Amino acid sequence: MRELCISGGTILTMDQAGTVIPDGMLCIEDGRITYCGPRHAADAPPREGCEELDARGGLIMPGLINGHTHAAMTLLRGMADDLPLEKWLTEHIFPAETKLTGEAVYWGTMLACAEMIRNGVTSFCDMYLFERQTAKAADAAGLRAMVGEVIYDFPSPSYGELENGFAVTRELIAGYASHPRIKAAVMPHALYTCSPSLLERAGRLAGETGADLHIHLAETREETAQVVSRYGKRPLDHLESLGLLNRALVAAHAVDLTPDEVARLARAGARVAHCPESNMKLASGVAPLMTMLEAGVKVGLGTDGCASNNDLDLLGEMDSCAKLHKASALDPTAAPAETVAALATRLGGEAFGRLDLGILAEGMLADVIVIDIDQPHLTPMYNPYSHLVYAARGADVIHTVCHGKVLMADRKLKTMDLAEVMAKAREQAARLNGRAS
Question: How far, in Å, CA of 402 to CA of 103, rounded?
Fold first, then answer.
């Protein structure tokens, strides 16, 4: 029995063949797509009581996948801009994070969820503090999430000593093992904040539980120099020497890589979360995206946190991604629109560890968005992929569905009170920056 039908628009399935279905219809039951095809060919009309969404002639496509972020950093948006990564992190972000509480992370994540839903993001991978609260907020908002408590050598404002960080990680992995939308992963921060023994233990935990291991890796040349100075190896070599270069690995950023290192990532089956806007803003460099894709590395697109981006608009990220790689390669054919759109959908699903995510087809997860193309900046439309990457904005998303549940219809959020979320987030931000009354 159908629970939700979406019709009246053009379906971009984002499958490998590039299938486009004019005047299409999607039918959804129990969080999965049961029909994806022309509206006139549907086997039966929607049953009485079935919820219906009118696409209003727009584009029906998979929900976008944010492969790397720190959701509650919405509370730090704009706090310390125009600084290099090390100064930004050690002199501003880490000190601010010592004041974080579980309540702050909950409301910061709810604010992030509101922003992502309104921008068409239905899945996100989150590494941060107080991740129990991140998971709770993602669940309340109705989004799909991969969460992980960030662990590093020094005491955490969330869990205190490292031993507690591993306990929280185990608890998250076990507690969400059977959840339909929320999963947990092992998330050591980076090679320069985690000792070899910590990283080896994190690898063992990932192996024992079957969880992913998500880590910032090769983000800058400065990081490479620091790791070489400390361990006598480049970041990927150091990671491999600890037994962590494998299919469980998800490397965030992966900017400073040689062609040989890219090939080794591909052979290992490791995945990458590419964050072009954050990399540009922090002047971290340009990741070898096209080399990674040509080598067969599974790459998804991420926004990073709002303290280094400063938004969670994945449509805007797609635009930046395409233009960055064209400019850096001096090649207008680099990072073509259809490829970049796939980074946020089908390829992003693979990088997220799911082959049933990021594609609209029968049996796939029912994460769907609708984009209103009846807009001056989207008229005329010769190529829908081109418009998605170079012209569409988060504000053009009118409907957002995750796991078959409508999270936003006609730009109205269904799972939260936006005014309350924004008020609570402002309250928590005031406490962080010392302006609380």
Answer: 25
**Both tokens assigned to 272:** 């990458």
Identify the CA nearest to 121 among candidates 419, 360, 400, 416: 400
Pair of tokens at residue 156: 């955490």
**CB neighbourhood size of 426 (10 A):** 12
The strand ranges marked E within 152-297 are: 182-184, 187-188, 213-217, 249-253, 271-274
d(CA 51, CA 377): 30
Q: Which residues pair with 146 in a beta bridge?
A: 125, 183
In the block, which residue shows the tokens 């150091």? Answer: 238
Query: 144-151 and 182-184 as β-strands: parallel, antiparallel, unpaired?
Result: parallel
Instruction: Give the position of tokens 């999965």.
Output: 32
What are residue 331's phi and psi, to 5 degrees?
Answer: -140, 110
Distance from C-alpha of 181 to C-alpha of 371, rounded to nearest angstrom: 23
Residue 81 predicted with pLDDT over 90: no
Q: Where do we find the tokens 């850096």?
A: 328
Structural domains in the chain, sorted by start: 4-62+357-413 (2.30.40.10), 64-351 (3.20.20.140)
- Bridging pattern class, strands 397-402 and 182-184: unpaired
Q: Which two tokens stand for residue 391?
A: 């012209």
Q: Do residues 41 and 23 lie in contact, with contact meaning Cβ atoms separated by under 8 Å?
A: no
Query: Distance between CA 220 and CA 194 in Å, rounded?
Result: 16
Which residues lie across from 338 on neighbouring strands? none
Q: What is the CA radius of gyration of the chain?
A: 21
| Residues facing 149 on adjacent strands | 128
Q: Beta-carbon neighbour count of residue 31 at 10 Å?
A: 18
Task: Map residue 304 onto helix, strand or coil.
Answer: coil
pLDDT in tens, 127-176: 999 999 999 999 999 999 999 999 999 999 999 999 999 999 999 999 99
pLDDT digits (tens, 9 = 90+) for 202-219: 999 999 999 999 999 999
Structure tokens, 233 = 């190896």
Alpha helix ranges (H) inside 74-220: 85-88, 94-97, 102-118, 131-141, 162-175, 196-209
